[in-house]
């Protein structure tokens, strides 16, 4: 009988404040969708780091005849066969850091350059002797690039040392900035949702002040009086959480797998899979359920004098 009464009170409250309830559902859905999107963006950055850091190399570019005339680091002339042999030997001795070492000749570098920039005007004027030989070093731990840079920078025959990881950091920093913006917007929407929940509970409690007064007179406990209001807010939050889950699933489906088909248009990007998306949904639902309930409980202590 009590459960039936509580459920009927929830239905009455939702019908009386239908527009505000709808506003609560929409704001909760948007804030939780942004929250889930921020979580997915963080997972995306982590996934891309794991994927790309395992593939990046440290490139040790060697001096050629052109560098000897234009670069202060190559003032002693082009790299000699003995210097190349010594650099390679030293790299291979660093077994704790270095996984593989590949020597790219000037002809190989020229071939790769032509493949990448064959459509540009400058490709026709570049000659093989202008290309630099290099050692492509794959590290066991890409974070220890500075050890290689310190060991070989300034050596005779070495023109420069490039860490490909630094190129990717620009992309990752941009994605982090987008993530921070999403988190900031999420907090703004969350504040709006909490204000709507508090106002909705306040209006609902005011409109039913006579009923709650009678319930107090007949000895109803504070919790028994408060529970319909809390459950109304929880129900609205749960519906908003479900909509947020739909938005996250739909976003992954239409943006990555179908629609824009980013997974096919950007094959070099390792997008997070459905397992990662599904793993975030329970957290979104739990927050969607608890956040309005707690907000309603706090609001009732202030506005519902029981």
Folded structure, characterized:
With 306 residues, this protein is an alpha+beta fold. The chain folds into 2 domains: 186 residues, no CATH class; 110 residues, 2-Layer Sandwich (Alpha-Beta Plaits), CATH 3.30.70. 70% of the residues lie in helices and 8% in strands. The protein has 11 helices and 4 strands, in the order ααβααβαβαβααααα. The protein has a 4-stranded antiparallel beta sheet. The longest helix is centred in the middle third of the chain and has 44 residues. The radius of gyration is 31 Å and the shape is rod-shaped. The two termini are 22 Å apart. The model has no long low-confidence stretch (mean pLDDT 77).
Shape: rod-shaped
Helical residues, percent? 55-70%
The radius of gyration is: 31 Å
Q: Uncertain runs with pLDDT below 50, 5 residues or more?
A: none
Contiguous helical run count: 11
Number of strands: 4
Strand content: 5-15%
Let me know the average pLDDT. 77
Most strands sheet:
4 strands, antiparallel
Derived structural class: alpha+beta
InterPro entries: ABC3_permease_C (IPR003838), FtsX (IPR004513), FtsX_actino (IPR047929), FtsX_ECD (IPR040690)
Subcellular location: Cell membrane
Keywords: Cell cycle, Cell division, Cell membrane, Membrane, Transmembrane, Transmembrane helix
Family: Belongs to the ABC-4 integral membrane protein family. FtsX subfamily.
